[in-house]
Specification:
The protein is an alpha/beta fold and 499 residues long. It has 3 domains: 6-64 and 219-300 and 439-498, FAD/NAD(P)-binding domain (3-Layer(bba) Sandwich); 123-188 and 196-205, no CATH class; 306-424, no CATH class. 34% of the residues lie in helices and 18% in strands. Strands 1, 2, 9, 10, 11, 12 and 18 form a 7-stranded mixed β-sheet that branches. A 7-stranded mixed β-sheet has the order 7-6-14-15-16-13-17, sandwiched between helices. A two-stranded antiparallel sheet has the order 3-4.
């Protein structure tokens, strides 16, 4: 992507004011962490610049429109949007809580296998009854699991801490005997190796709190609201603007250098970008402690995704479908849950336009099919030195065809009703976000990573350089937005203490 000079970015152009070259704060990346941080700082009266290499703000919280259909890039649902939630609190702080509508999702999810189906609604007692009806011999174990899920909360630190370092397998295997029940529970909470602190019990807890929403207008509506608010508070948003270097003097961040060669002076710098990119390329290893650099190279990251976005001319609502995420798993054994064979792996199917009818033309629907396929699948998707040619295009279409065929087990006749199709691979996600291997959530939430990340917080080894976004902590849009507020608070506190 060619980066534009600051003078030709959004807000520039003929007749517009000249871009300033010196700021209180320069932020790399207009993901939700960067936008949140920028909005808080701009509201506090700081002169703030956000540089974003992509043509739209939002990072993974965005949508794209094709042929009248609006598709999400990643969002399944959002939590913390109701009163008291992290997203709502942020909107309230910025005075924009009434400028976007969140659509409650209930039911939230449905899991479907070759010979079973289970709907997950916010009525946690109904979920318990449904599971007991399917597996009466496991009644007591199911009840104990539901009790743990309901009481999983920060106010019950003993239960939360008991999950740290454990996996879904550690939670499920000792409690349950029936292989099919275990298969269903793993389909809901993630395979056995999934970290328990983000697995089955927390997911059931989220259901019980009626805490799942979808932003009206899609993810881009939320991102655009934050971007507009940032600019209304006086911030400068430079899209199509690639940062190539964080300027360091005497171990302190003092500004940015852009692909155009322009240098932007800033008293403070915040990176909402990929952590490896931030430190190993934009900063440089010569400024970093060796132990920190080694951890950057060793720490595991969340995988990327393969996404098929379909516009269809089917009346899916009349066929009994809703806006819930449908997880279809053809797996007949626990071992098959982690396969990367597109014909056998689990997929998520979401009909976004049954949540918000404005996302598709009348009588049609926007359907997403997502699978977690690795970046290195089939020799990096049949690319050579990162170059995508005919073999790459053939492979991604072949994988898409196999996932569509799998989805037809849930939506019969889907293939013959497709009127638009778009396919994204992990390489696509990498290209648009610059995230390492197209990771969709930053650092993998292992106990080791969490201890490391929160051990040094959002400050970095470089003075006046801070982090925000999913590389600064736990992934997920609510916590990412909150990380922006935290970074802003740290800067404002440092400014106050320096006076």
């Amino acid at each position: 992507m060619v980066a534009l000079s600051l003078g030709s970015c959004v807000g520039g152009g003929p007749g517009a004011k000249a871009w300033e070259k010196e700021y209180d704060v320069a932020i790399i990346g207009a993901g939700m962490g960067g936008l949140s941080c920028g909005a808080y700082l701009a509201k506090a009266g700081m002169k703030v610049l956000i540089c974003e290499q992509h043509s739209v703000p939002g990072g993974y919280c965005t949508s794209f429109e094709r042929d009248g259909f609006t598709f999400e890039t990643t969002i399944h649902s959002l939590q913390e949007c109701g009163e008291g939630g992290l997203i709502y609190q942020t909107l309230e702080d910025l005075g924009i809580q009434d400028e976007i509508k969140f659509i409650p999702l209930d039911p939230v999810r449905r899991v479907v296998g070759k010979d079973y189906g289970l709907t997950l609604s916010s009525d946690i007692k109904q979920l318990e009854d449904d599971l007991v009806a399917m597996f009466p011999a496991e009644k007591e174990a199911i009840r104990e699991l539901i009790v743990d899920a309901i009481t999983f909360d920060i106010e019950n630190p003993e239960l939360m801490m008991s999950l740290v370092g454990k996996t879904n397998g550690d939670i499920i295997e000792p409690r349950f005997q029936d292989p099919k029940l275990k298969l269903i529970l793993y389909s809901i909470g993630g395979p056995p190796q999934t970290q328990a602190i983000w697995g089955l019990i927390p997911q059931f807890n989220t259901l019980s709190r009626k805490n799942n929403y979808f932003p009206e207008g899609g993810g881009r509506a939320l991102a655009n609201l934050f971007a507009r608010t940032f600019k209304e508070y006086g911030g400068d948003l430079a899209l199509n603007t690639l940062v190539t270097k964080i300027l360091i003097e005497g171990g302190k961040a003092v500004g940015l250098e852009l692909e155009s060669g322009e240098k932007i002076k800033a008293k403070y710098v915040v990176s909402n970008a990929d952590a490896r990119l931030t430190f190993l390329k934009l900063v440089g290893e010569e400024w970093l402690p060796e132990e920190f650099t080694q951890k950057l190279l060793e720490a595991e990251v969340w995988p990327s995704a393969f996404l098929v976005s379909l516009g269809v001319d089917m009346d899916l609502g009349s066929l009994g479908f809703g806006g819930e995420v449908i997880h279809y798993s053809p797996a007949e054994s626990i071992e098959e849950l982690t396969t990367t064979d597109p014909r056998k792996m689990g997929i998520d199917i979401i009909i976004q336009s049954l949540r918000d009818p404005s996302l598709a033309p009348p009588g049609k629907h926007a359907v997403s099919i997502m699978a977690l396929l690795p970046y290195h699948y089939m020799d990096n998707w049949h690319t050579e030195d990162g170059k995508r040619g005919e073999e790459y295009r053939k492979l991604k279409e072949q994988v898409a065809d196999r996932l569509i065929a799998s989805a037809e087990n849930v939506i019969p006749g889907l293939l013959e009703h497709i009127v638009y199709q778009d396919v994204a691979t992990p390489l696509t996600y990498e290209r648009y976000t610059l995230n390492y291997q197209g990771s969709i959530m930053g650092w993998l939430s292992t106990p080791e990573n969490i201890a490391w990340i929160y051990g040094w917080g959002q400050r970095t080894p470089i003075e006046n350089l801070y982090q925000a976004g999913h590389w600064a902590g736990i992934g997920g849009i609510p916590t990412v937005i909150f990380s922006g507020k935290t970074a802003a608070d740290l800067i404002l506190k440092d400014i106050q203490e320096a006076k």
